[in-house]
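Margin note from the TA: students keep mixing up input and output lines. Inputs are the sequences; the output is the structure of the whole complex. Example:
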Amino acid sequence: MSNRIVVPFGPQHPVLPEPIHLDLVLEDERVVEAIPTIGYIHRGLEKLVEKRDFKDYVLIAERICGICSFTHSVTYCNAIEQIMGIEVPPRAQFIRTIWMEYSRMHSHLLWLGLTADAMGFENLFMNAWRLREEILDDMEATTGGRVIQGSSKVGGIRLDIPDEKLGEMVDHLKAIRPRLEESNRIFTHDQTVRHRMRGLGVLTKEEAWDLGAVGPVARGSGCDMDVRSSGYSAYGELGFKPITLPHGDCLDRCLVRSQEVLAAVDLVERAVAKMPDGPIEEKVKGNPDGECFAFTEQPRGECMHYVKANGTKNLVRHRVRTPTLTNIPPLVKMLAGIELADVPVVVLTIDPCIGCAER
Amino acid sequence: MSYITKSPWVIHYDGSSCNGCDIEVLACLTPLYDLERFGIVNTGNPKHADVFLITGGINEQSRAVVKNTYDQMPDPKVVVAVGICAATGGVFRECYNIMGGVNEVIPVDVYVPGCAARPESIIDGVVRALGILEEKRAKMAENGGDKK
């Protein structure tokens, strides 16, 4: 029986841009237990609903996280719209869907790059981020913001995308599609990538289900769980199908994301082809009264916003459950039994977004 | 740019930001913006770093980490507060767990505006910080390597 040592990992460390602390209990090189400590970026923004108008709060809901920003604002708007019984015009729903898929593409490309970096594959990191910049160019051209867009509002969207710009966006996506496929091919076929990730940090389908995994973590373990199947915004009209892979290891979680980038390109193309005409917002009158749970599929998994209102302009309660928090128990399971050198790769495969998780 | 005689290394820490500025800091290091053309390298070790890029406001739990990281950096050193949250707390300044901007804990040399700060402004901020770093280095040399 060898001695146990505890290696602190974080909060300031070179792998993740965000602070999380893990106490890794090691026996020689092998991790036997991982104890997470969170709270380094807790701001307490849920309580701000008591001070801000519920319409202005959309901008704060968007700043829960700078990567899934647009999805957060849409989820919050969905909750308010359901309470107030607002029918969002179809064009607004379609444009929201396009922007949500753009956030998914940029988030997944960002993640693929960071994972490559964690493996020491610098070239692939740079390549993924170069592709991401092209996605952000269209995002910036249509919303005005690169990572924080501020273009969703209660009742619709702030800005319309002109039809000729929609055409240009599709042409641009067609042009970068071969490069996305080439980058995906590296993740699927490259010997180094397979060697680092195949069979590592395995989470079986049963474990994923029992521990409450969501998003690509659950789909990489073969669970068919994707909130987009429920058809919120315009997903119901776009023939959405979730991507699942069976192995539950790091490579499958990675491939789910790389395939979802291409699936997002398809969804945007279909949304542009079916784009309805009409207004982009519905006038909002009065204040909300009631409560609602709204669910969306963020790049990282299922995200829930709970809103409770009492008929005044300030809400009573806003509660958010984000995919990262839900994916921490599966992460602790994946870490047990792996070698210390693999910890950064395994931590990254849940795509931790601490900004979301701690708010 | 003639004052860049050495390759300054950068360390990045997320005080309590929403991630927006963090990924823009990372975007600065990637091919489109490419901070490395100025010889700037991102390091994870405070003892190797000259420039401290910090994003987000300060909360109770991150205060000690920010102070500790700053104290471990060798002199001369500069601090760049990236984004409006790092300057004042931004949209979160009324949150119960936000103490305010980075200057509540450590002295700041350059403030980069924006929510989220754009990569162009971050690069501009870092390049300005390098001028300040050079001034500090010259001052230290005058005093025989002593900070004061």
